[in-house]
Amino acid sequence: MPNLWDQQPKESSRAFAVFVVYRDLGLRRSCNAVSTQLNKNPSSVLELSKRHNWQERVRAWDAHVDEETQKEQIEAVKIMKQRQIALALKAQRAVQKGLSKLIKQLDTNSAGGRISPYTIRPDALSKLLDTGCRLERLNRDEPEHSLEFSQGSKFDNLSLEECENLRALIAKAEGIK
Prior knowledge:
Layout: H1 13-24, H2 31-38, H3 42-51, H4 54-108, H5 122-139, H6 160-173
């Protein structure tokens, strides 16, 4: 059985072609618009519309188009979420590496040496971790009230022991031993 918007069994190819013009006008759809576009008598277009049930057919067409659009939108959201979760996890791994490097430098320089200016600053690590965690939670449809670091955090005020505890917590959260 054909769809209502397809050519109907008792509909000529010419009549169907006129219907397609009507169908594809979308929000500007009217018999007058079709008659103007095709240079046809308005009463003959109106007669075709009644005979071949255009109103019902375009309602079915519009519902079909809407359904397909919704499917595409849902798929696009799924793809976006997967992409953003992957990015969030990469951000979290980058923070973990940065924290590990910072902790090593703190261990190495505990005798009063200075930390390299090329090291990622602790507040930048904090922002990256916060962003990575937020993106992952958002895309997994989880609330935002768990692990949050405020942007005003000053990791440079943490002791070596506190940095090590933070590293352990991050490793635990990511399932790394």
